[in-house]
UniProtKB/TrEMBL annotation:
<keyword id="KW-0464">Manganese</keyword>
<dbReference type="GO" id="GO:0030145">
    <property type="term" value="F:manganese ion binding"/>
</dbReference>
<dbReference type="InterPro" id="IPR004139">
    <property type="entry name" value="Glyco_trans_13"/>
</dbReference>
<keyword id="KW-0472">Membrane</keyword>
<dbReference type="GO" id="GO:0003827">
    <property type="term" value="F:alpha-1,3-mannosylglycoprotein 2-beta-N-acetylglucosaminyltransferase activity"/>
</dbReference>
<feature type="transmembrane region" description="Helical">
    <location>
        <begin position="12"/>
        <end position="32"/>
    </location>
</feature>
<comment type="function">
    <text>Initiates complex N-linked carbohydrate formation. Essential for the conversion of high-mannose to hybrid and complex N-glycans.</text>
</comment>
<dbReference type="InterPro" id="IPR052261">
    <property type="entry name" value="Glycosyltransferase_13"/>
</dbReference>
<keyword id="KW-0735">Signal-anchor</keyword>
<keyword id="KW-0808">Transferase</keyword>
<keyword id="KW-0333">Golgi apparatus</keyword>
<dbReference type="InterPro" id="IPR029044">
    <property type="entry name" value="Nucleotide-diphossugar_trans"/>
</dbReference>
<dbReference type="Pfam" id="PF03071">
    <property type="entry name" value="GNT-I"/>
</dbReference>
<comment type="similarity">
    <text>Belongs to the glycosyltransferase 13 family.</text>
</comment>
<keyword id="KW-0479">Metal-binding</keyword>
<keyword id="KW-0812">Transmembrane</keyword>
<dbReference type="GO" id="GO:0000139">
    <property type="term" value="C:Golgi membrane"/>
</dbReference>
């Protein structure tokens, strides 16, 4: 009898244990489902698939109150493994959180050494992925079509397929400043609050140490000239640009008036990016701007841009302040810079492109023109520092009536005029050609034919003699 009772008790205990386990399991499943519903109410970020050996869909759920995604960082690379390693090391050292910034390495082509570097970072860091574009064939050493095709493909991918709202575009030959991410976090707010601003750039084209106020790491400017070289754009802008994106020279295309549509970019006084000249090589421009680029360093400051109100670059208040600065600035004599007082701003005017070249040459500003615009120009106004004073280089009409600042219109003929001035400097002022300097004249065309240089002349494109 006792044996029977023991068997019965054992059986009931086993059954009871199973029931308890089932109840606990059901409770746990119910808890997980409720947590899942809660997470769905928060932000869900779907990072891109890695193109390493086995593509994986990385899905990261982020609490909107703590580590909300700010932007993806799209890193363009192709053939420079050391440059890519250097750039990614800086990006990841400065990245505040792998939740806030997803890194996407976009490789053009399949150079093994570059792929190996990319895969190493994918393996070692969270929210770093690698995608590869089939490289466009290059004809006659012209990289520009390949670069444009890669940009179009990668930007389409991150915005349309991966569905990011904001992307920071960088390149493997760039170094970055200490407050790079703070700057772009602030810049995202600017993009979202002012329709007259279409990009935020970390680059100052005239950012050489002698041309900037090195004490003003917090100073930011509007510019009509698209700077690139570390820049942020929104999904809405890319939806506008993507259908007409050009087959080559995409950055100059961005500077065309019909593309820019009177919108401006934000750029800093002190660049937050710089070219690593040791690792970059000549680049796609063939080293044309090496002398300028080598003088520009990424900021070593550490500015908390969250303390800077976005209203400082809001068009209405910014324009009003700039007009007042030009009105109150003292006239400036280009030939006499010794009597400048640090408590004052100064201004100098230009009437035409020859004037501009004369002034830019004196200050060692970049002289080239795109879309009728000088680099860093805003309504034709270019700013710099000289002897610790702020100097405004201003169109003659604005110089006479600063209140007419926003009536200034860029002249697209300046591109062709500037091309002639550069042509003249290369062939005529160096005495390669000693006749009348006119590329349209029969005499000069005959000279180029005799030298076997006719194609060189044609490659300069349309020019206007000034």
């Amino acid at each position: 009898m006792k044996r029977v009772l023991r068997r019965a008790a054992s059986k009931h205990a086993s059954t009871l244990f199973k029931v308890v386990c089932i109840l606990v399991l059901c409770s746990f499943i119910f808890y997980l489902r409720s947590e899942d519903r809660q997470l769905k109410n928060d932000t869900v970020i779907h990072a891109p698939r890695s193109s390493s050996t086995e593509e994986e869909e990385i899905s990261t759920q982020v609490n909107i109150h703590e580590d909300k995604l700010i932007a993806a960082v799209l890193v363009f690379c192709a053939t420079r493994p050391d440059a890519l390693r250097n750039h990614l090391s800086q990006i990841l050292a400065q990245r505040p959180s792998h939740y806030q910034y997803h890194i996407i390495i976009s490789q053009d082509g399949n150079k093994t050494t570059v792929t190996d570097v990319a895969k190493r970072f994918v393996k070692d860091f969270k929210n770093v992925t690698h995608i590869q574009h089939e490289k466009t064939e290059i004809k006659k050493r012209n990289n520009y079509p390949a670069i444009s095709a890669h940009y179009k493909w990668a930007l389409d991918k991150v915005f349309k397929e991966f569905r990011y709202d904001h992307v920071i575009v960088t390149e493997d030959d760039l170094d970055i400043g200490n407050d790079f991410f703070s700057y772009f976090n602030w810049g995202k707010q600017v993009l979202n609050t002012d329709d007259t601003i279409w990009c935020v750039s970390a680059w100052n084209d005239n950012g050489g140490g002698s041309l900037i106020d090195t004490k003003r790491g917090d100073l930011v400017w509007r510019t009509d000239f698209f700077p690139g070289l570390g820049w942020m754009l929104s999904k809405e802008l890319w939806e506008e640009l993507s259908p007409g994106f050009p087959a080559a020279y995409w950055d100059d295309w961005m500077r065309k008036p019909e593309v820019r549509r009177n919108r401006s970019c934000i750029r800093p006084e002190i660049s937050r990016t710089s070219h690593n000249m040791k690792l970059a090589g000549k680049g796609s421009s063939g080293g044309m701007f090496k002398d300028y680029l080598s003088k520009i360093s990424a900021s070593s400051a550490n500015i908390d841009f969250s303390l800077l109100p976005t209203t400082v670059v809001q068009k209405s208040s910014y324009d009003k302040r700039l007009v007042e600065d030009i009105e109150n600035a003292r006239p400036f004599d280009l030939e006499n810079t010794t009597n400048m007082e640090k408590t004052y701003n100064y201004k100098i005017s230009y009437k035409n492109i020859r004037d501009w070249h004369r002034i830019a040459g004196k200050f060692k500003l970049m002289t080239d023109i795109r879309g009728g615009m000088q680099r860093t120009a805003y309504y034709g106004v270019v700013t710099l520092t000289l002897n610790d004073c702020r100097v405004f280089v201003v169109p003659e009409t604005t110089y006479q009536k600063p209140s007419e600042l926003t009536n200034y219109v860029y002249d697209s003929n300046w591109d062709k005029q500037n091309r002639f001035i550069e042509f003249e400097a290369y062939y005529c002022k160096t005495k390669k050609y000693t006749g009348k300097c006119d590329p349209h004249s029969p005499e000069m065309i005959a000279f180029f034919k005799r030298k076997g240089w006719k194609k060189r002349l044609d490659d300069w494109g349309e020019m206007i003699v000034v």
